[in-house]
Amino acid sequence: xxxxxxxxxxxxxxxxxxxxxxxxxxxxxxxxxxxxxxxxxxxxxxxxxxxxxxxxxxxxxxxxxxxxxxxxxxxxxxxxxxxxxxxxxxxxxxxxxxxxxxxxxxxxxxxxxxxxxxxxxxxxxxxxxxxxxxxxxxxxxxxxxxxxxxxxxxxxxxxxxxxxxxxxxxxxxxxxxxxxxxxxxxxxxxxxxxxxxxxxxxxxxxxxxxxxxxxxxxxxxxxxxxxxxxxxxxxxxxxxxxxxxxxxxxxxxxxxxxxxxxxxxxxxxxxxxxxxxxxxxxxxxxxxxxxxxxxxxxxxxxxxxxxxxxxxxxxxxxxxxxxxxxxxxxxxxxxxxxxxxxxxxxxxxxxxxxxxxxxxxxxxxxxxxxxxxxxxxxxxxxxxxxxxxxxxxxxxxxxxxxxxxxxxxxxxxxxxxxxxxxxxxxxxxxxxxxxxxxxxxxxxxxxxxxxxxxxxxxxxxxxxxxxxxxxxxxxxxxxxxx
Length: 482
Hints:
With 482 residues, the protein is α/β, with parallel strands linked by helices. It has three domains: 2-140; 155-355, UDP-N-acetylmuramoyl-L-alanine:D-glutamate ligase (3-Layer(aba) Sandwich); 364-475, Protein-Tyrosine Phosphatase, Chain A (Alpha-Beta Complex). 49% of the residues lie in helices and 17% in strands. The protein contains 17 helices and 15 strands. A six-stranded parallel beta sheet has the order 2-3-1-4-5-6, with helices on both faces. The chain has a six-stranded mixed beta sheet with strand order 10-11-15-12-13-14, with helices on one face. A three-stranded antiparallel beta sheet has the order 7-8-9.
């Protein structure tokens, strides 16, 4: 009887440990498997208390009565999981993490059943899982990195273009692909893959042997991130777009951001650098530097598209595109310049630019049920949202509605500016989440304010306030853990 009771007690303990392991794994995936970032950068610290810290404290003090709380804990965790808009993805790394964790928990379970040892050994199982997972992933990634380097080395005619910027990396990548892929066998990193591990995986799994141009987006959260990517790729062309305060919470200063972006210049076979014209000119670079955009005149940007004229090789060429936003002229211009470098003709490029389709979630115009939707949910910088608001202001007819959590990983001043911009244009401002709700609410006085903590209610709210002829701008769709 005593043994069976002990087994039941340990099963309860194992279920609990598995639940906090799940919470930890979810956060590790959100924050790129960096425990320090989970602790220091998480915007909803209360989640750590509700789903991790307080349950552990109660586990330690409730003794044999803990199973009563465990039921409550599991229900709360399931409800939390259901409300997440960015749930745990069962990648190979996550599967390895849980396989390791289960092994250590089973060993702990056996020890607890047959030996008189404290139940706190279960926390050692979690700690050992973290350490083992960290070491094994380092070893695995080193092997994967070597495979990726060997694969790149085996290409005899592959040109590599690497792109970084505070804003617009993905747009530049997509515009480049749209132009170059019409003449060359071109491949670009998918979606927003821009970390060293993601790029290594992409090279090993997706880059084909007959590829002629590989376009790579390079992102960073700390100093050295882009240097690792440069040493992996040893790229031929580097594009450094606009540098600004994106991810300022991680880098602390604009100087740190600039220095990290300029790590893209660390390539021994660099042929040319394309640098946003307002960025500081770097020193000690042997490759020629071309600034962009070149001279631009006759800009017309509205809700139907964008028309502009570029000076290329001492001649002016007019381009029309379905892409919205004056800031995209800069992003398009560098794609045009590189297409010229690769031997494409201006007339050919003009035609291709006119056919480029809007990029999903990046100032994408959608017309549905008599309403205009500007989906700018993947844009998180002030200048981009400022332009989206300008375009929204051109709408005549119905109400203008904005849905936004504000700006993430930036200054209070930027969110204050955003609030003033919103107040000058929109009839209704729907503020999502807690992060910036206070600062936005304090500085929006004319527009009707609706603050929602749970985006699950958003569709119902929009259905109740929107009519035909209205415009809705979705600006910076931050995930729920922000």
